[in-house]
Amino acid sequence: MKRIETILAACDLSDYSLLIVKSAAQLTVALNADLIIVNVINQRDVDAFKQVFSLNTYIDKDMDITDYLKERKEERIEKIQKIVNDAGCSHLSPKIIVRAGAPFRELIGVVNQEEIDLVVMGTKGRGGLAGMLLGSTAEKMFRCCPVPLLSIRLAKDHSAATREARGVVFGYR
């Protein structure tokens, strides 16, 4: 197996994010690797903004999709930096990438462009019929990711703090 030099942590800013970043940081230290944290602004959100913007006469017409994406990216970078600080891994100086598009495609794009060796992400997905028909980002990543993928699962109560208190690490109980 190839030496793991670069780890990607997929950070969707959900309850999973702190645990994912902590887990990826622990691996980064243990393997003496680099850490890249990636967040994707879903294309559906971008399309919804475009539609609302085109229909609403009360919105500042000087603002366009480029401004909207720039503001969202800046907000997300700040949130990710807070997660990095809360995870106690700011000393690792992870590279933060925020993209817009279909999450699965964007994550695979970063894997290829940044020459990622391992992806760390949560297993949270959409349930019900939509999840069965479309598949979640995690399911698509498991099927198509060109590098090993480590899934991080929260305990049934979905509390990262409770999970850590019980000593659950890397999804093993």
* Computed CA radius of gyration, to the nearest angstrom: 17 Å
- Strand line-up in the sheet with most strands: 3-2-1-4-5
CATH topology: Rossmann fold
Strand content: 15-25%
Q: What would the principal axes of the Cα set say about the shape?
A: globular
For the termini, the CA-CA separation is 26 Å
Largest sheet: 5 strands, parallel
Helix content: 40-55%
Report the count of strand segments: 5
Provide a quick synopsis of the model:
With 173 residues, the protein is an alpha/beta fold. The chain contains seven helices and five strands, in the order E-H-E-H-H-E-H-E-H-H-E-H. Strands 3-2-1-4-5 form a five-stranded parallel sheet, with helices on both faces.
Q: Which terms would index this structure?
A:
alpha/beta, Rossmann fold, five-stranded parallel sheet, 7 helices
Description:
The protein is an alpha/beta fold and 173 residues long. The protein has helices at residues 17-31, 43-55, 65-86, 103-113, 128-134, 137-144, 160-165, and strands spanning 6-10, 34-42, 95-101, 118-122, 149-152. 47% of the residues lie in helices and 17% in strands. It has a 5-stranded parallel beta sheet, sandwiched between helices. Helix 1 (17-31) links the parallel strand 1 and strand 2. The longest helix has 22 residues, at 65-86. The radius of gyration is 17 Å and the shape is globular.
